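Q: Here's a chain of 314 amino acids. Please give me its 3D structure as tokens.
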Amino acid sequence: MPLLRPLLPLACAALAFGASGPNDSAIGPDYAPAPEMTAKPGVPKGTIKEFTMLSTESPAYPGIAKNKPGEVVPYKRKVQVYIPAQYVAGQPARLLLVTDGPWYTKRVATALDNLIAAKRVPVQVAVLVESGGGDSKGSQRGLEYDTLSAKYAEFIEAEVLPRVTKETGVTFTKKPEERAAMGGSSGAAAALTMAWYRPDLYRRVLSYSGTFVNQQYPEDPKTLHGAWEYHASLIPKAEKKPLRIWLQVGEKDNGWDRPVPPSFHNWVEANERMAAVLAQKGYAYQYVFCKKAGHVDGKAVAATLPSALEWIWK
């Protein structure tokens, strides 16, 4: 399938960006936090509640040892829940599910306090879920986030959200249009995977430096190159799904100068191709290319998170 914009040789992928339409934009190289990333006097503040989940109680993810298949290693998982001041107890809440949660908690809470108060996004509860630990192939986090299947979305549905209700009393809507998934890096790939494999549960996706590269382990012959297959085969070959997707990448993101064969491990190239295939298929999407930014760059997140949240809820 032809891409919408020509891509330069892979070693120069970061220079290939050119906005091809109203859904693509480039920002930077200087960044300032969006005004909504600062707490404001008079704005009602939500509360944050926290609890810990034990892998010994998890049917889905009992824990794995790095690169030691079959060996169970217990872990603890922190879950934080942002409940806005405007939430009405007893009413099913809109859901923002955030992977790698604790890194985003303060950022998301501040942005939502301001956006909800200004009526720029609907009232929603954010559930910020820590991974099981480790990173990349062979790790618990990699197993959860880089596997292309419905398993992680179903783990959230069967184990995390019922526990949130038990701990906080908050119940959640079952309407997929009122549920969003968000993350960065492999957590962003997980957010898309939740919506791709279970669009009956999630329809809105927010991705920072998405790991749409070959990082799945164990390998699956149906998706040989892991999340690289989203732009290589899955999205191009499938009927368009009812998803709304915001994605970002940094010019100096992971593997920015790495040739694709044989690694399929260049984040800039992967996200460029994601934007191209989403446009080709007619998806509702926004793509932001951040000049001189790195991987899940905090400055880029602070500059864009409020507008990204506002866009995905339109």
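Q: Can you summarize the key feature?
A: The chain has one domain: 10-312.
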